[in-house]
Amino acid sequence: KRRGIGMFVADGARAALQAARRRSYAAKVLGPALATGRLLGLTEAEILQAAHDYLQEET
């Protein structure tokens, strides 16, 4: 970093970071949450409905 020049970010860096965070979220948060739902006996339809209901509340 040089004074007065500002900071530069590589082309596509934002998209690459976002893709990495999405993969991480799926592996660390979403996957375990879905697995827990299945262990509790929720069906695929019930899990999808719960996700849909949650997203509707957020908007």
Describe this structure in words.
The chain is mainly α and 59 residues long. The protein has one domain. Helices cover 71% and strands 0% of the residues. The chain contains 2 helices and no strands. It has helices at residues 13-39, 44-58. The longest helix is centred in the middle third of the chain and has 27 residues, at 13-39. It is elongated. The chain starts with 12 loop residues before the first helix and ends with a helix. The model has no long low-confidence stretch (mean pLDDT 91).
Compile the SSE list and pairings.
Blueprint: H1 13-39, H2 44-58
Protein name: Putative transcriptional regulator
Organism: Actinomyces urogenitalis DORA_12
Number of strands: 0
How many DSSP helices? 2
Helix content: over 70%
> Please, what is the average pLDDT?
91
* Structural domain count: 1
Contiguous uncertain segments of 5+ residues: none
Separation of termini? 41 Å
Largest sheet: none
Kindly name the structural category.
mainly alpha
The topology string of helices and strands comes to: HH
Radius of gyration: 19 Å
Assembly level: single chain
Proportion of residues in β-strands: under 5%
